[in-house]
Design brief:
By secondary structure, this protein is α+β, with helices and mostly antiparallel strands. The chain has 8 helices and 8 strands, in the order H-H-E-E-H-E-H-H-E-H-E-E-H-E-E-H. It holds the Pfam family Ribosomal_L1.
């Protein structure tokens, strides 16, 4: 019950107004940077809004496969005309050459059959996992391939591995402000459903901007212990020190006393 209450608190603490102010600040900063720069950047409108998720503790059950967080507005510029590359198990005479596969795999929209997910580390190699270029798993045992692929392409990916920080792509510059805000709110709600009360903070940023906080959890003071000051001793410790001093001075007096025999 306590974890559910904490999760609801973090969900309710992030309002659309707060997210809207953060988005406005980032858009204003980007406009200033663009006006100061003399060179127009290539694919500037494709720059991403990143939601930085910071956890209180490292996940107990880290996983390589990302969690899918549905977004109301996909990050594809033209979802209806977007091309995807679906990876399935090997078929004889597929006609797919190595060059064709390498060109298609450069796309970020790569759904993959759920049954071959365990083979990815060996087949794709470490660079794909370092750059978070992991295909989205779809269950091809069911007939609704179209719905599953659309859901995968319209979802943000949350990686929960061996750290306390994760970055989730929630928007692009070409999108409208309202769309970005709705995506951020949906992403936060989806992440809270997955992580629960383990959320420490949410920050929103562009590639080179500062991270703007949109939520910060209140520290749990019960987890911290205040150490006593070194110059203040308890009464029991003071009594022990006095007794030790008295005993040592008494022994010194005994050593100084000498008996004279006539």
């Amino acid at each position: 019950m306590a974890e559910e209450a904490a999760a609801e608190t973090s969900r309710a603490a992030v309002s659309p107004e707060t997210v809207g102010k953060a988005v406005n600040a980032l858009l204003k900063w980007k406009d200033e940077q663009s006006s100061q720069s003399q060179k127009a950047q290539l694919l500037e409108k494709d720059e991403l809004f990143n939601l930085i998720v910071t956890l209180k503790k490292i996940p107990e059950n880290p996983r390589v496969n990302p969690h899918k967080v549905p977004l109301p507005h996909p990050l594809l510029s033209e979802p209806a005309a977007a091309e995807v590359c679906l990876i399935i198990d090997d078929r004889p005479k597929s006609g797919l050459t190595k060059d064709t596969a390498s060109k298609k795999i450069k796309s970020e929209n790569i759904p993959i059959s759920k049954r071959i997910i365990p083979l990815l580390p060996r087949l794709l190699g470490k660079p794909f996992f370092k750059k978070k270029k992991i295909p989205v798993a779809v269950d091809l045992k069911h007939r609704n391939w179209k719905e599953q692929i659309e859901k995968g392409c319209g979802s943000a990916l949350l990686f929960l591995s061996s750290g306390t920080c994760s970055v989730v792509k929630v928007g692009k510059l070409w999108m409208g402000k309202e769309q970005i805000v709705e995506n951020v709110i949906a992403a936060i709600n989806g992440i809270v459903d997955i992580v629960g009360s383990n959320i420490r903070s949410f920050h929103l940023k562009l590639l080179d901007s500062l991270a703007i906080p949109v939520y910060q959890a209140v520290p749990d003071l019960r987890r911290f212990k205040i150490a006593p000051e070194t110059d203040q001793l308890s009464s029991k410790e003071e009594e022990e020190v006095v007794e030790e001093e008295d005993a040592s001075s008494h022994q010194k007096k005994k050593k100084k006393t000498k008996l004279t025999v006539h």
